[in-house]
């Protein structure tokens, strides 16, 4: 998408993920009767399930009956990337137009009744409390299970240094998560020096934009929705305004 606007994009991986509690995850997935549905706010939660399903016996149980039984219940998702992974494991996603946790929480609250069976929420150790809090306020039970931890990518510092030494100061830097801001920003500030004011900082969505603002970065654009098309259009508009 960025290429279509004449930009040259360099992707620098920021995060590494360690999957945990997978036995516990599959144990819970083995009892659909205990839950009212599933909630996914990250592609990593689906990756955790896919790792479980690599084991033949578990995959067999999933295909034989579990998938069908879960398909009688909603699988709520935050966006299109997560939705496509839900489809890959044979479930039907709902709420993929939400785009962020706040809107997904509203969507779930409009469909679930208080005091129904708990929704199972496989999530990361750094999950925000927006969705759990919104559901709790409406009396909708949610059972969170941490299935992955986020750490800084081992090559991050080296990759950023290499980029700046080979390509110079970028016209724009896009962050895709608050963790990305946390792990990258100090390196970018150090490498940019006084030229940091020349960089247009963009965010994939409002949560990331909030983290950027809290860290003192001016946000020149936030994608209208977390899609490649909206992000590319937003960056193009921001750079055109600055005559970059």
Automatic annotation (TrEMBL):
- What keywords appear on the UniProt entry? Heme biosynthesis, Lyase, Porphyrin biosynthesis
Q: Which residues form the Tetrapyrrole biosynthesis uroporphyrinogen III synthase domain?
A: 5-232
Q: Which domain of life is it from?
A: Eukaryota
The pathway this protein participates in, as annotated, is: Porphyrin-containing compound metabolism; protoporphyrin-IX biosynthesis; coproporphyrinogen-III from 5-aminolevulinate: step 3/4
Q: Which Pfam families match?
A: HEM4
EC number(s) reported in the record: 4.2.1.75
SUPFAM superfamilies given for it?
HemD-like
Which GO terms of the cellular component aspect does the record hold?
cytosol
Swiss-Prot/TrEMBL catalytic activity: hydroxymethylbilane = uroporphyrinogen III + H2O
Q: Name one GO biological process term.
A: protoporphyrinogen IX biosynthetic process
Q: List, in alphabetical order, the Gene Ontology terms for molecular function in this entry.
A: uroporphyrinogen-III synthase activity
Concerning its family, UniProt says: Belongs to the uroporphyrinogen-III synthase family.
Function (record text): Catalyzes cyclization of the linear tetrapyrrole, hydroxymethylbilane, to the macrocyclic uroporphyrinogen III, the branch point for the various sub-pathways leading to the wide diversity of porphyrins. Porphyrins act as cofactors for a multitude of enzymes that perform a variety of processes within the cell such as methionine synthesis (vitamin B12) or oxygen transport (heme).
Q: What is this protein called?
A: Uroporphyrinogen-III synthase
Q: Which organism is it from?
A: Rissa tridactyla
Gene name, please?
A: Uros
């Amino acid at each position: 998408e960025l290429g279509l606007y004449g930009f040259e994009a360099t992707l620098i991986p920021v995060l590494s993920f360690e999957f945990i509690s997978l036995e516990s995850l599959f144990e819970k997935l083995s009892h659909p009767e205990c839950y009212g549905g599933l909630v996914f706010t990250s592609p990593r939660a689906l990756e955790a399930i896919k790792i479980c399903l690599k084991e033949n016996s578990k995959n067999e149980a999933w295909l034989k009956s579990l998938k069908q039984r879960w398909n009688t219940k909603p699988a709520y998702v935050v966006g299109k990337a997560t939705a496509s992974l839900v489809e890959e494991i044979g479930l039907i996603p709902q709420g993929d137009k939400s785009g962020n946790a706040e809107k997904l929480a509203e969507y779930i609250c409009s469909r679930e009744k208080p005091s129904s069976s708990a929704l199972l929420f496989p999530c990361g150790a750094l999950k925000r409390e927006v969705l759990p809090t919104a559901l709790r306020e409406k009396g909708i039970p949610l059972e969170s299970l941490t299935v992955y931890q986020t750490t800084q990518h081992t090559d991050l510092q080296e990759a950023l240094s290499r980029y700046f030494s080979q390509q110079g100061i970028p016209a724009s830097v896009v962050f895709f998560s608050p963790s990305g801001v946390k792990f990258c920003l100090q390196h970018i500030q150090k490498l940019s020096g006084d030229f940091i004011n020349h960089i247009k900082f963009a965010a994939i969505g409002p949560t990331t934009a909030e983290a950027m603002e809290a860290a003192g970065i001016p946000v020149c654009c936030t994608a209208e929705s977390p899609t490649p098309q909206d992000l590319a259009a937003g960056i193009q508009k921001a750079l055109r305004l600055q005559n970059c």
